[in-house]
Amino acid sequence: MQLRDTPAQQRFREELRAWLEAVLPTLDRPPSQDDWQARRAYDSHWQALLYQAGYAGLNWPAEYGGRGATPTEHLIFLEESELAGAPYVGVNFVGLLHAGPTLIAEASPEQRERHIPAILRGDEIWCQGFSEPDAGSDLAALRTRAVRDGDHYVVTGRKIWTSHAEVADFCELLVRTGPADGPKHQGITWLIMPMDTAGITLRPLMTAGGSTEFSEMILEDVRIPVANRVGAEGDGWRIAMVTFAFERGTGFVSEVVWARRRLVEIAALARENGTWEDSETRRRIARLAAEFDALWALVKRNVSQAEHCADGIPGPGSSVFKLRFSEARQHLDDLHAEVRGRESLAFDDEHHTYDGEPGYERLRSLAYTIAAGTSQIQRTIIGERILGLPKEPTAARNAAAASAVSAPGAKGGGR
Amino acid sequence: MDFRPTQDQLALAGAVRDVLGKHRSPGTPGEEAPGEDGPQTGAGGVGGVDVALWRDLAELGVFGLRVSEEEGGLGLGHAESVHVFEELGRALATGPYTATALAAPLLPEHASGRHRVGLSDLTSGAPYLLEHLDALDTLLVVEVVDGEAHAVPGHSQVLRVEPIELRAEAVPHPVDPCVPLHRLRQKPLRGEIIGDAATADALLREGALLTAAYQTGIAATLTERAVAYAKQRAQFGRAIGSFQAVKHLCADMFARAELARAAVHAAAVLLDDDRADRDGADLPAAASAVSAAKLLADEAAVANARAAIQIHGGMGCTWEMGLHYFLKRAWALSLAYGRAAEHADLISEAL
């Protein structure tokens, strides 16, 4: 049990640090978050720089153009990038963290050949078409229909929370190919939808923070080639679950580093404006520092476990991290506002980059306990998958239980 | 980096757990309900200590864990100690385990565990409550240097006091019925100065770490007990653990215990690294990590004890269910080796 870099990890860290030091001063100031074309150009440029330096697809297998780095090296990359103030993954998020890993795990050789190198270079932007207005936490209830018509699927429905849809080239799309009244986890299919196909309408959804990060996506008779299907028809739920495991494992790691540094800034501000004299405020800041340090230790525990398990896919332990981090992050932004006092009522962000502006971060963090599985869903995952508690009764399971009870010999026990 | 516990650390924890499993402990379900005198003062017990358990753990080497092999110890580090103390917490092992383990590197003649050592931090003033006094062979007292103000870091020292020379009265009803308390009637204490301020700080810091590990054990074992009960107890025709309201209480218990354990392990590793460097360069970081671990582990133990009682319903509040022993110990330990506010102040100084 130790936390120190091995000599190889130390070398990796030093090389990365030197590269970041050299390359970051060459970047322009980040564009306004509302200027989607500029954001795409900025994020793609950063991705291209990473690609040229051999840091793109860090944890992807070398045979697909990745670096084949270990989970620990990936953690070092995220830590050092955040400490150096490097750009976030930005509009490449879905391609690099969702679609790419899923394509590597499940797609055909032709599909991989077509998309993987382009995602790595930053030439291809992806968005996600999973959630629907009536299928949020209960994602498997999705109803967007795909009807086979020759060598095409004809897709009709509504998708929501589609980040970066304005500039995306492709969408990872979950559709229902099975009967609407069939078992909901079956009959779901995973499709690659080119975003320039006819029949796609985007309706921007402005968040409480004023950002146009998300869209609602209306699909009317969108024709998608059958060749764009990943995996078998009806196997989409299992494939989507692969994506989620990646999302929970690495999604918030660099944010812990950010939050810990933000806390030091808040402490400095509190000393400056006198709120530090209030022992309650001071101790709340300290309590949060303890929480973030512990979360960082938990990340290292999870990464060490992933490094030494066969598939490298993060386990359900990452739910504990997601649950506690998202709540701590909201406390952090509230505390920042409290220390700023009435100053927290004024946005100070003339360039609309939003990044780090405390008032905006406070509103943005509302979504932390909701996105990527709500806190309630995380608690259910911990309760059922880790602690082995019986599942919550649902309409479907009630029906199954009723038929089991009526069967001879079946006796209702404790569960 | 490999932050997983090693096979050796897991084996050590397993060996301690095996020994603990051979002895009765307060709060074990199915044990005969103990009376007000506490469960361990019966046959073979002295001053609230189960002497047979103490002897078996001493034979295993738990007191000389961090004493060098030349001096008869095991030559291991904090990373191993926290695994042992988490097991002690799981079993609610009762006695001056923390103080005796802390004293061993200071007084190597005590590494065998043949003598029991207590430790009291009297720097913050009254009340002066001493634990397990009748079971002690030696008492270490962290005390303010004569003429100095109270509770100023760097102005304390470690005294070695003979317990039989103390004038102290037994507290008739300690909240934790397993830990006898005495109220000290006489100050200042006379004793031999065996350590300076740095020694005192190190003792209290390491004591906070071991106590945090013990609290993590309480938090973890109560999660398991609450989950087992929630699976088995049926109301409204189904196991109560199937209801989200109960399931989510259990999930929060698990999250608190896991986060506290990660904090405790990180603090242990950082303290070990600091010792390995022997330059004290990382000491502020390690000290903050210990305070973070103590804060989170105290919270986890107390909150999980409350949640376990809640999940057990009315029976959770009874003497015979035994959960109250865990809550009472968690309360007592959260006032030992630094309260939440003191550790928060320590952390804030480093920010």
| Regions with little confidence, pLDDT below 50 for 5+ residues of chain B | 32-43
CATH architectural type of the largest domain in chain B: Up-down Bundle
* N-to-C span of chain B: 25 Å
Question: Could you say what the CATH topology of the largest domain in chain B is called?
Answer: Butyryl-CoA Dehydrogenase, subunit A, domain 3
Order of helices and strands of chain A: HHHHHEEEEEEEEHHHHHHH
Flag low-confidence runs of chain A: 406-415
Tell me the count of domains of chain B: 3
Q: How many H/I helices of chain B?
A: 9
Q: Give the tally of β-strands of chain A.
A: 8
Structural class based on helices, strands and sheet pairing of chain A: alpha+beta
Global morphology of chain A: globular
| Distance N to C terminus of chain A | 39 Å
Number of helices in the DSSP assignment of chain A: 12
Overview of this structure, please?
The complex is a heterodimer of chains A (415) and B (351). Chain A is of the alpha+beta class. Chain A folds into three domains: 7-88, Orthogonal Bundle (Butyryl-Coa Dehydrogenase, subunit A, domain 1), CATH 1.10.540.10; 127-234, Butyryl-CoA Dehydrogenase, subunit A, domain 2 (Beta Barrel); 252-386, Butyryl-CoA Dehydrogenase, subunit A, domain 3. Helix content of chain A is 47%, strand content 12%. Chain A has twelve helices and eight strands. In chain A, strands 1-4-5-8 form a four-stranded mixed sheet. Chain A has a four-stranded antiparallel sheet with strand order 2-3-7-6, with no helix packed on it. In chain A, strand 2 (145-149) and strand 3 (152-159) form a beta hairpin. In chain A, helix 7 (253-273) runs antiparallel to helix 8 (279-307). The longest helix of chain A has 29 residues, at 279-307. Chain A is globular. The two termini of chain A are 39 Å apart. Mean pLDDT of chain A is 89; it is low at 406-415. Mean pLDDT of chain B is 89; it is low at 32-43. Chain B folds into three domains: 7-110, Acyl-CoA dehydrogenase/oxidase, N-terminal domain (Butyryl-Coa Dehydrogenase, subunit A, domain 1, Orthogonal Bundle), CATH 1.10.540.10; 117-196, no CATH class; 198-349, Butyryl-CoA Dehydrogenase, subunit A, domain 3 (Up-down Bundle), CATH 1.20.140.10. In chain B, helix 3 packs across helix 5, helix 5 runs antiparallel to helix 8 (323-334) and helix 6 (244-277) packs antiparallel against helix 7 (283-311). Chain B starts with 6 loop residues before the first helix and ends with a helix. In chain B, the strands form four sheets. Chain B has a four-stranded mixed sheet. A three-stranded antiparallel sheet of chain B has the order 4-8-7, with no helix packed on it. In chain B, strands 1-2 form a two-stranded antiparallel ribbon. Chain B has 351 residues and is of the alpha+beta class. At the A-B interface, helix 7, helix 8, helix 9 and helix 11 of A face helix 5, strand 11, helix 6, helix 7 and helix 9 of B.
